[in-house]
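Lab channel / #folding
Pinned by the channel admin:
"Please post every new chain as: sequence first, then the structure tokens as a reply. Keep commentary short and put observations after the output so the thread stays searchable."

First post following the new format, from NK:
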Amino acid sequence: MTDQTGGEHHHRVFLVVVDDSPELTVALRFACRRAHATGGRVAMLYVTEPVSAEWLGVGEIMREERRTEAETRLQELAADVREMSGDMPVLHVREGEPANELLRLLEEEPGISVLVLGADPGPKGPGPLVTALSGRLIGKLRVPVTIVPGSLSYAAIDAIT
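Reply from TO:
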């Protein structure tokens, strides 16, 4: 969509937190399908583990390696997002504890309008981020959260989006 000045304008931004879980693929597909259907856009957040500052030189090398891995992973997923949603995603890389960094990003980026998370269907529970955000941190969120069951098939996601 374009605004009156001729520039791009996206009504909704669907944020997906990227990790190595299998349920990421269903969350990402759901977000892409919703973005495509509503003229919105997908954003992705990758949070790297903090590096201990015991040895500064080694810590900086580790920090750079983690950032490079995060950027590589996001670029791989960005191609899929573009294909599914029709638009390139907005990419965010942060270092720290995932829930805290997510909350900070939501504070800093008022354009983000929906958080989409995948829930692990296994016996261990939905995952640490889903657990934290649907429990003790839910009151700190300023956007709605869509939790997509990790067991949904692509056909089921397509049918509901």
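NK: The CA atoms of residues 51 and 60 lie 8 Å apart.
TO: also worth noting, The first strand starts at residue 13 and ends at 18.
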